[in-house]
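User: Quick sanity check before I run a bigger batch. Here is a single chain. Can you write out its predicted 3D structure?
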Amino acid sequence: MAPEKLASEIARAFIGHAIATEAQEPTDTTYTQSAVRLTELEDLARATARLGEVLAAILGKEMLGLRGIVQGVQRMPGDEQFADLGHLAKLVTRHVKSKKAQSVASDVIDALRRAVVFSGHVGEAVRRVTGLTVYLPMDIKDFRVYRRSYSTLSFLKDHPEWLLFLDALHAPQHQLSD
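Assistant: Done. Predicted structure follows.
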């Protein structure tokens, strides 16, 4: 069996079990599970980095729209520093005026569709998940605490543009935190 098929079956089984369990004994617990095609992750990383580069470039002009996106994007309950990458890109295509940003966000969505072979969820709080998240802290204090360790990830060594966007987003003139 191909690895991605096995991963997809495992993720589907987990979500199926969670759905059945919730049907018998409803709780407010949320679950997400995805399986990815590892051979597609580099293309997705490049597209995400390009999105970071473009968003950093338009940040001053489109701060209000980006603020709404950062605050409204699907976050992961229990770790709000992470945002669903597909939902983020979708919001950029809908709420940012820059055609370049919209186009790059569409590229992220396309790359994500190629990479994610299964994405499932249980719970209303995670209804907009698409399979993968990206670090997108709203709070500057959280960002300052984790920035150094985050910057050591191989993704950022190869594609520093996402971190440049986060740096710009949390610069004093662009504060998102209330």
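Residues 39-116+131-174 form one domain.

User: Great, the batch can go ahead then.
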